[in-house]
Amino acid sequence: MTVKMALALGMMVGLAGCCSFQTNRIIDYRVEYGTQTDPVLRAQIERIDASLRAKYGMSTEQSAVGLMDLRTGQLAMIHPDRGEYAASIPKIAILLAYFELHPESREKLDPRVRHELGLMIKASSNEMAAKYSRAMGLKAVQRVLEFVSVLRPETWRHLDGQTLRAQRGAHG
User: Fold this and answer.
1) Model pLDDT for residues 3-45, shown as the tens digit of each residue
2) Closest Cα to residue 133, out of 90, 171, 104, 102?
3) What distance lies between CA 169 and its chain's CA centroid?
4) How far are the Cα atoms of 39, 73, 117, 171 from residue 110, in angstroms, in the given order?
5) CA atoms of 158 and 19, how far apart (whole Å)
6) What are the two backbone dihedrals, phi and then psi, of residue 76, each rounded to the nearest 5 degrees?
7) Lowest mean pLDDT among 49-53, 69-73, 101-105, 159-163
8) What is the tens place of the pLDDT at every residue in 108-136?
9) Which end of the chain, C or N, has fewer beta carbons within 10 A?
10) DSSP secondary structure letter of residue 18
11) Which residues contact 74 (CB under 8 A, 6 or more apart)?
12) What is the DSSP code (8-state) at residue 60?
């Protein structure tokens, strides 16, 4: 994972990760060319982006950010036309599966595991990704993804098991 991808992911998780999936209106949300964005939210992520780029010596050509506030449905993007291949997306699936299969870790995470999962996500450690995917088994990771409907967009589920059915064409 490149520094810019890690920064973008970190910003998205940091800003939106504390939000809960409370409304049905964003279940069938699609981002298209004409999708309206929120100028206030964009200004906020532009400030964060500028600060992080200055801190890490990055140019504007080295970053792109997309953020959706899951509470409100507000969308903001910086350089949305830039394409980046996210090679570390499987690591996010492994992290999700770990916490689904070890729910006790949500409240109390072993320091060694915290460090290793941090290496996997923050430093994009392939060694740690292999270690945890082998320990859980790829079938278990796939089952978790199917459970939270990453592989089936017609149904979205909260991690607590509550099911929300996507209603095609209904945003509110």
Assistant:
1) 454 444 454 444 444 333 444 454 566 777 788 899 999 999 9
2) 90
3) 24
4) 41, 34, 10, 40
5) 12
6) -145, 145
7) 159-163
8) 999 999 999 999 988 889 899 999 999 99
9) C
10) T
11) 38, 41, 68
12) G
pTM here is 0.43
The helix (H) or strand (E) run that includes residue 130 is: helix 126-136
Q: What residues contact 169, with CB distance under 8 A and at least 6 apart?
A: 28
Q: In the structure encoding, which two tokens stand for residue 143, read together?
A: 């089952």
Closest C-alpha among 170, 168, 138 to residue 153: 168
Give the C-alpha distances (Å, rounded to integers) separating 14 from 8, 17, 121: 10, 5, 13
Residue with tokens 């459970």: 147
Longest Cα–Cα distance in the chain: 46
